[in-house]
Amino acid sequence: MICLYCHSRIREEADLITMFKRRKPLCMPCRKKLSLWRSGGRCGFCHRLVDREEDTCPDCRFLAGNYRRPGKIMCMMDYTGEVKMLFHRYKFTKDAALSEVIAMFLKCRFGEYDMSIPIPVSAARMEERGYNQTSMVLRAAKVPYRDILATDKAARQSELGKRARLTAPNPFYLKEGRAASSLAGKRVLVVDDIYTTGITVHQALEKIYTMKPDAADVLTFSKA
Ligand SMILES: [Zn+2]
Ligand SMILES: [Zn+2]
After folding, report:
1. Residue 7 domain-assigned?
2. pLDDT tens, 66-76?
3. Which of 78, 150, 209, 219 has the greatest number of beta carbons closer than 10 A?
4. Rg of the Cα trace of the chain?
5. What is the pLDDT of residues 137-166, one digit of tens each?
6. What is the DSSP string of 105-157?
7. Is residue 130 one of the residues assigned to a domain?
8. Domain assignment present for 111
9. What's the pTM value of the predicted model, to 2 decimals?
10. What region holds the Phosphoribosyltransferase domain (predicted)?
11. pLDDT tens column, 54-103
């Protein structure tokens, strides 16, 4: 077997149990490298690495002052140098097979939610990359999801400052149709690939909250 991440031959015994347990091969050293969490204080809400342990970091307080918060934010992988590299390869060198690697780290109780909703990518980005990096991981993990959000985000918003993004119009909208209108009273999970400032997710939530779900949590594969 060849490791999907480092492309080296996996030397462990390929006995039947490990063959079936594993969806796709990832060698043990890569598995360890990618599951590493840096030590240090963490924000209790968004899991950002901070100087000292605190309930909410300045970013979370900034967001709370401007948006309605999600119930909780779950983060699957720390944004270490290695994870950064993984996402770079996955998103920018279009190594789509890495969706299988990221999917292995999804440890979330999806069954507790009525609907998982990935953050959408714009039509231009879709054309350029060929896939929505978030929904592709959900597909690899065999997690059902609904594409009820869309975006007309033309510019790379990440290049705008925090304040500029706050005053810019919300780039997300809910697609017409039954799925979006049936969110009332439901437990929804918004899924994003990398949580940086958190503004993207909070803008998406702003649209979702208009449909009055019972609860909305966030799952992010990694946290920058
Ligand atoms: Zn490997
Ligand atoms: Zn925080």
Report:
1. no
2. 999 999 999 99
3. 219
4. 18
5. 999 999 999 999 999 876 555 566 767 777
6. T----GGG-SEEEEPP--HHHHHHHSS-HHHHHHHHTT------EEE---S-G
7. yes
8. yes
9. 0.90
10. 137-210
11. 788 999 999 999 999 999 999 999 999 999 999 999 999 989 999 999 99
Distance CA 73, CA 65 (A): 17
Domain count, the chain: 1
Q: In CATH, what number is assigned to the domain containing residue 141? A: 3.40.50
Q: Could you tell me the distance, in angstroms and rounded to a whole number, from the CA of residue 47 to the centre of ligand 2?
A: 6
Ligand 1 centre distance from Cα of residue 129 (Å): 25
Distance from the alpha carbon of residue 191 to the mean position of ligand 1, in angstroms: 26
**Residue at 26 is within a domain:** no
> Which residues have C-beta under 5 Å from ligand 2, the single-atom ion?
43, 45-46, 48, 57, 60
Q: Please tell me the number of the ligand nearest to residue 73's CA.
A: 2
Sign of the C-alpha dihedral computed for residues 196, 200, 204 and 209 taken in this order: positive
Going from the Cα of 128 to the center of ligand 2, the distance in angstroms, rounded, reads 32
Give me ligand 1 centre to Cα 27, in Å: 4
